[in-house]
């Protein structure tokens, strides 16, 4: 493990959830309760799930995505996105996605989820471009999708998902997206 040789991790964000069932977490006027901790049907060593009660919300906490890097495997990310949507009764229920700074990893997940929902609903605009989507998102949140490797990761995940559900609609959209890849690598810092 790389962590064994490193100094203690730098604190990136505040914890706002209880770590154990039966031990409420108090934060100012709010008390958050852990109703239960999920036992997943499939092994996901990098993901824990908890039912929290402030209002009732479900938290998925992916713990193996390094800051300024990408996960070693895409399967857990795809499973997490699928799980995330399975807890959403309908699209009007908001989702809260965040990483330590709320931009790099958060942006990558938002781009993947948004793009895949366009594909599933067959509502991909003819001029759709992942690069343009990221640029637009950056007008609302600077540094969304922070690194080149995160850009490659987005395309890699979407390409893998595309192979599972290939339709004639996807071919021109993804071809255009991949044509933009070289340009993206030169412009994302």
Automatic annotation (TrEMBL):
Give me the segments passing through the membrane: none
An individual GO BP term = negative regulation of T cell activation
Gene Ontology cellular-component terms listed: cytoplasm; nucleus
List each copy of the Tyrosine specific protein phosphatases domain by range.
75-148
The residue stretches assigned to a coiled coil in this entry are: none
Q: Name one GO molecular function term.
A: non-membrane spanning protein tyrosine phosphatase activity
What name is this protein filed under? protein-tyrosine-phosphatase
Organism of derivation = Myripristis murdjan (pinecone soldierfish)
């Amino acid at each position: 493990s790389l962590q064994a040789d490193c100094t203690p991790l730098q604190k990136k964000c505040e914890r706002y959830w209880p770590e154990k069932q039966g031990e409420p977490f108090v934060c100012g006027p709010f008390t958050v309760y852990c109703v239960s901790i999920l036992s997943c049907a499939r092994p996901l060593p990098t993901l824990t799930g908890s039912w929290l009660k402030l209002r009732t919300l479900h938290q998925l906490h992916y713990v193996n995505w390094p800051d300024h890097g990408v996960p070693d495997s895409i399967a857990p990310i795809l499973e997490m996105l699928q799980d995330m949507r399975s807890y959403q009764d309908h699209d009007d229920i908001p989702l809260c996605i965040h990483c330590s700074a709320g931009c790099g990893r958060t942006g990558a997940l938002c781009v993947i989820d948004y793009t895949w929902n366009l594909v599933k609903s067959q509502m991909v605009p003819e001029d759709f471009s992942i690069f343009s989507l990221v640029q637009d998102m950056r007008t609302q949140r600077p540094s969304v999708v922070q690194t080149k490797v995160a850009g490659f990761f987005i395309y890699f995940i979407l390409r893998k998902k595309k192979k599972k559900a290939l339709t004639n609609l996807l071919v021109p959209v993804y071809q255009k997206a991949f044509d933009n890849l070289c340009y993206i690598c030169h412009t994302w810092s």
